[in-house]
């Protein structure tokens, strides 16, 4: 059985959506704070760190780790620390194109399969009152970039280019392909 190294309810829902049997064992990997650097390398390192942390507890079992960030140019936007941080991020994203990167790592003992997926997202210009109403919902506070495309922020998005499920937190097509490659599923 696959082990998901994440407590994310969105990742659990996505795996369940495609019929993958799994159990949850959240990672205790100490995540680094995102900085100005290569977002693809950053999410991949985080995903591998999370998966290896949990795989050490489950020898012989496949473990899936993932990490998602929003990048505006070279600036990596993680989860907001507080309300002002969420407001700042949403103002930065307003009227601009950004990228959502998810690193995925499938680990069993010394075997590792990885992939990084990028989806481009265009936000329409947001009004201050819209941002304030959205912040008041508390929805942004556990999400990279301070928004959830699958929730109330769906109306902020003009268009996307790439995987929708990647923006939610787990690129399902690529995860499924890795699971097939590792023979976790047929």
Ordered list of secondary-structure elements with their pairings:
Layout lengths: L1 E3 L4 H9 L4 E3 L14 H17 L7 E10 L2 E3 L5 H11 L3 E12 L2 E13 L4 H9 L20 E5 L2 H5 L3 H10 L5
Helix pairs in contact: 3-4
Structure description:
By secondary structure, this protein is α/β, with parallel strands linked by helices. It has a single domain, classed as Maf protein, CATH 3.90.950. Helix content is 33%, strand content 26%. The protein has helices spanning 9-17, 39-55, 83-93, 128-136, 164-168, 172-181, and strands spanning 2-4, 22-24, 63-72, 75-77, 97-108, 111-123, 157-161. Strands 1, 2, 3, 4, 5, 6 and 7 form a seven-stranded mixed beta sheet that branches. Helix 3 packs across helix 4. It catalyses: UTP + H2O = UMP + diphosphate + H(+); dTTP + H2O = dTMP + diphosphate + H(+).
């Amino acid at each position: 059985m696959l082990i998901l190294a994440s407590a994310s309810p969105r990742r659990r829902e996505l795996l369940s959506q495609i019929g993958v049997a799994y159990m949850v064992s959240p990672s205790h990997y100490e995540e680094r704070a995102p900085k100005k650097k290569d977002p693809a390398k950053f999410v991949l390192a985080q995903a591998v760190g999370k998966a290896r942390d949990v795989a050490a507890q489950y020898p012989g079992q496949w473990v899936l780790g993932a990490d998602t960030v929003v990048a505006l140019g070279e600036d990596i936007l993680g989860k907001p620390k507080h309300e002002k941080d969420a407001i700042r991020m949403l103002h930065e994203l307003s009227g601009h194109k950004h990228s959502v990167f998810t690193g995925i790592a499938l680990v069993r003992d010394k075997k590792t399969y990885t992939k990084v997926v990028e989806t481009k997202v265009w936000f329409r210009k947001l009004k201050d009152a819209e941002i304030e109403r959205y912040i008041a919902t508390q929805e942004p506070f556990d999400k990279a970039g301070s928004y959830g495309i699958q929730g109330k922020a769906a109306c902020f998005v003009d268009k996307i280019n790439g995987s929708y499920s990647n923006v939610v937190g787990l690129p399902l097509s690529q995860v499924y392909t890795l699971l097939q490659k590792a023979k976790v599923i047929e």
